[in-house]
Design brief:
Layout (H helix, E strand, L loop, with lengths): L1 E5 L4 E5 L4 E7 L2 E2 L15 E2 L10 E4 L2 E4 L12 E5 L3 E7 L12 E10 L2 E10 L5 E3 L1 E3 L2 E3 L11 E6 L4 E4 L1 E2 L2 E2 L5 E3 L5 E2 L10 E4 L3 E8 L6 E6 L3 E5 L8 E8 L18 E3 L4 E10 L1
Antiparallel strand pairs: 1-2, 2-3, 3-4, 5-13, 6-7, 8-9, 9-10, 10-11, 11-27, 12-26, 13-25, 14-25, 15-20, 15-22, 16-19, 16-21, 17-18, 21-24, 22-23, 23-27, 24-25
């Protein structure tokens, strides 16, 4: 089912399948990538309980081996509607006997989309409903149309950063994070967009406190900002081989498997821990002009 929320300046559409944002429009402009199976058949999937690709698509926990698809399974789950108004929608999903085959924890995940002015807030509330500590990763993967106007090109845009400072970047090798090759990324200045920027897959940065990542062009009054507080990682990505006209700005509480990973969930880099009956809350915003 497709849900629509709006105000006088902004309209968002959310699919209950995966609780995925599939459209964000203002002044006749569509800001969200409209999914093309030849490039990337998603819009803005939610990533849970893993982020990225696992070695051999599996992991172990307490000596048992589990299979897990890339970015977890929640993006393929059907959510229920918990509440809805003109400017707000809350969707919910709880673990099932099927999810326990992939992930040995019980949980409830609520996702709230809330329009305000020219922005959309995306809230996550994860509750550990089980009797043991839960380990998880949680993130989002929104993809934005670039260019936003027909007379512009991908290369007419650039990325800018707030605060303007260097951030630690973690390179990927064959889809896995190489922690031994961490360097300082030059996010203290604007970075011009071109497809070669993503020739080695995602650009992953460590982030702390408040961060804003902006896609903009000197040839346009329209821009996109993704803002958040206290997400430890962000990934910037566009598919290099297909040279698709979108850029994803993906805030993550967690990170993809590493080149030195043992496959044990207990040792997984970036995993969050949630005690029984506790709740984990986080949010990010998309602001468009």
């Amino acid at each position: 089912m497709i849900l629509t929320i709006s105000n006088t300046s902004l309209t968002a559409k959310i699919d209950t399948h995966g609780a995925e944002l599939i459209s964000l429009q203002s002044e006749g402009i569509e800001f969200i990538w409209q999914a093309d199976p030849n490039c990337w058949n998603w819009h803005a999937p939610i990533l849970f309980p893993f982020i990225g690709r696992l070695k051999e698509n599996q992991y172990t926990y307490k000596g048992k081996t589990y299979s897990m698809p890339e970015h977890g399974f929640i993006r393929d789950c059907q959510f229920d509607i918990l509440a809805m108004t003109n400017e707000l929608a809350i969707l919910t999903f709880s673990s099932t006997s099927e999810t326990l085959q992939y992930y040995p924890f019980t949980f409830t995940l609520n996702v709230k989309y809330e329009i305000w002015g020219e922005g959309l807030r995306v809230h996550f509330t994860l509750e550990n409903t089980g009797d043991e500590e839960m380990l998880f990763a949680l993130g989002s993967h929104p993809a934005f149309n670039i260019p936003l106007e027909d007379h512009l090109t991908f290369n007419d845009y650039y990325l800018s950063f707030f605060p303007s400072k260097c951030r630690t970047t973690i390179p990927l090798e064959e889809h896995y994070a190489n922690l031994e090759k961490k360097t300082l990324g030059q996010t203290n200045t604007c970075i011009g967009l071109n497809h070669e920027l993503f020739c080695n897959n995602s650009l992953i940065y460590e982030t702390k406190g408040f961060n804003a990542f902006i896609l903009e062009s000197e040839k346009s009054i329209h821009d996109i900002t993704v803002a958040y507080k206290d997400f430890p990682y962000v990934a910037l990505w566009s598919p290099y081989q297909n040279k698709a006209n979108f850029v994803s700005i993906a805030p993550w509480h967690g990170i993809t498997d590493t080149t030195t990973s043992t496959g044990k969930l207990e040792d997984w880099l970036g995993m969050n821990r949630l005690l029984t009956k506790e709740k984990f809350k986080t949010e990010y915003s998309i602001i468009v002009h």
